[in-house]
Fold:
Amino acid sequence: MQLIDGKVVAASVLEECREEIASLKEKGVTPGLAVVLVGEDPASQVYVGSKVKTCAELGMHSQKIVLPASTTQAELLAVVDQLNRDTSIHGILVQSPPPPQIHEEEIIRAIDPRKDVDGFHPENVAKLVLEDPTGFVPCTPAGSMRLLAAAGIATEGAKCVVLGRSMIVGKPMAMLLLAKNANATVTVAHSRSRDLPALCREADILIAAVGRPEMVKADWVKEGAVVIDVGINRVPDPSKKSGFRLTGDVAFDEVAPKCQAITPVPGGVGPMTIAMLMKNTLQAARQLSGLS
Ligand code: GUN
Structure:
């Protein structure tokens, strides 16, 4: 069994970013990312903190905007509008999920698609489907693809099952696997799919992205399969100082022995998401500056 180490692969992506940032700075461009957090969701606070910290480590410009949980739709739209106009900002990300009074779809559509480094704007969704490389690919599925490549896993002709159909992971992941540079056969499974365990057992490559702790059991996985665990779930654990531990969507201990390769949680897909966000921000900086 091969353990796919996301920290190692992410470090090599960040190394590529360092080189590109140096070359952009030589041309007078300092890439800038704005991260907007509305409310106080503890997990979101951690993610947003990591994103800003990574920018700093790479010598990028970043701006963290923390708004109260009571922020109105109009107030958030005004912040997005200001960031759209800010020439020092190339990438804009509004952390999901926002509080319930916020209509996320309208916020996403308000972001300048040229700065939509999450790849959630309809224009970028279309470019993903069209395989147009000027679009932004959502970071988590992009990172998952990169992990497969780094682990030497061939997708050509492989039976892939994507468990989950979210706009953030499941749907874009399916599109990436289906694209002509991957050539996989893709099944997208979800909570209403009939006989999920049997569907998953068909997979040469199983992508678990449902957000349910340890849902994928050993008997859901074919012997010799590759498993990418996208889940980052907090489950109560009184033995931890924080009171919780992180676990994936896959019951790792029982599934891992059956796998050709598997990603751990934490330390698998998580670090890749941030690394790909940096890459997307560099792409935005290049494109907005007419450098690509
Ligand atoms: N919440 C969980 N993943 C993501 C992501 O990739 N982008 C944003 N904006 N919010 C998220």
